[in-house]
Amino acid sequence: MALARLVERIERTLYVHYEDSFVYFFEPNFEALPPELLIHLFKYLNPSDRSAAALVCRSWYDAFRYIKFQRAVRLHIHDIEFVDNGHPLKGLMTSFRYFTDVCITKVVFGNKSEFWSEFGDGIEELTFDNCVIWKHKLASILKYMPRLQRLNLFNCPDLFKAWKLIENTTVTWNLVMPELKHLSLARNNRFLDFHFDYLVQLAPNLDSLDVSECFSSIEARQRVLMLNHILEFVRTSRDRLRHLFLCGTPIDNVFLRGLADIRDLSLRSLGLMVCEKIPTSEPGIIDLLRAQTALTHLDLSKSLALNDYALIQISRSIPQLETLILNRCWMITDYGITAIKSLVRLRHIDLTNCERITDAGLVGGLFTHNRRNVRKLYLGLLTNMSDAALTKVSFEFCDLVVLDLGGCSNSINDLSIQYI
C-alpha cells in the first residue's frame, strides 16, 4: 500500500500541465518528487555530487540534509594553525553546514577558537591524531559537545606528559558526558592510571574501550600495572561494557585469565594480540573464547602464537560471529581454518598473510557452505593459494563488496581474473 501511494504521488506531481489556446504540453516537475524517492536516489551519489544536486531547488536541498548523508561526511583538518582568522577555519565559520564527524591531525592548538562553540553542538565523533593538545584545552573543547558519542585520542603524547597527578588534586573537570559511548586511547604509550581514570569518568555510560597499540615502549613492570588497572575497569564496568579492543597491545596469559574469569561480562566485539605461546594448562585465550559466546566481531591480528586449537574453539563457542580477522596469524594451518566452516554468519573474513594456509584449507573451510553473507574477503599474501582456489571465489562469494588479493602472485592469472 505504501508503494502504491508513492507511485500515485509521483504520477500526480511529476509533470506540470501547461495550456494555451491551441497547444497542450507537459514538462518535468522534478522539484515535486516525493522526498522518500529523492533520498533513495541520492544514496547512489557520492558526497560531492550530492552537494551539487542540493543547489537545484529547495526540495533537493532538504533531501541533501538527510541525517544519514550528513553523518557520512567527515571534516578532516590537517597540519594547520588552529586559529579562527586562518585557513580553513575562516571559511568554515561562515558555513551553513554542520559536521557530526570531525578529525584533527597534526595540529597545534593555541588561543581560544570560536569553532567549537559554533559547531560543537552537532559533533558526534571527535578524533585527535598526533596533535599537540593539553588537558585544559581538551576540557574547554569537550564542554561544547553535549551530543558527543565517540572520542578518539590517537598518539597524543603531549597531553599526558604535561598532565601531572598533583594538578588533579585541586583542579577538577566538572564535566560529565552521558552520551559518550566510545573512548579510544590507541597508540598512546605514556598514559598512566590517573589519566585513564579521569577520561573514563567523563563517560558514565561508556560501553566501548580501545587501548590498541599501547604500552609497547615502556618497561614491563609499568605495563603490567596499567593492564591490571584496565582489567579492574573492565571488571567494574562489566554490566555495560560491550566492545573491548587491545589489538597490538602486548598482553600475557595472566591478563587473559583475569579477563576470562570476569563473570557476567558479555562482549560483542573483541580485539586481542596473543603474543605468548598458549600454555597447555589453564590457557587464558581458550577460556576467554569459551566464555564470550555472544561475540559478533573478533580481531586477532598479529597473534603469532594463535594456533589451530584456538581457532577450533572459536568455531565451536561463537556461532554468531560475523567478523573474523586473522591477519598475520602465522601458526594457523589448514587443519584450523577448516573448522570455520561452521561459522555460517560470517560477513567479513581476513586471512591476510596466513602463509601456512593452502588450497585444502580454503576449500575445506571457506568453500563448503553457501557464503552469500560474506561482503568482505581478504586473501592477500596467501602464497600457497592456486588459481583453481581463486576461481572458486567467483562461484561461492557472489555478493562481495571487497576482495583483497594483494601479493597473491601464484594464483592471479588471466583465467582466474576473468572468472572473478
Automatic annotation (TrEMBL):
Signal peptide: none annotated. It comes from the Eukaryota. It holds the Pfam family F-box-like. Residues 27-72 form the F-box domain. GO terms for cellular component: SCF ubiquitin ligase complex. Transmembrane segments: none annotated. InterPro entries: F-box-like_dom_sf (IPR036047), F-box_dom (IPR001810), LRR_dom_sf (IPR032675). PROSITE patterns: FBOX (PS50181). Gene3D superfamilies: 1.20.1280.50, Ribonuclease Inhibitor. One of its GO terms (biological process) is SCF-dependent proteasomal ubiquitin-dependent protein catabolic process. PANTHER family: F-BOX PROTEIN YLR352W, PARTNER OF PAIRED, ISOFORM B-RELATED. This is F-box domain-containing protein. It comes from Anopheles maculatus.
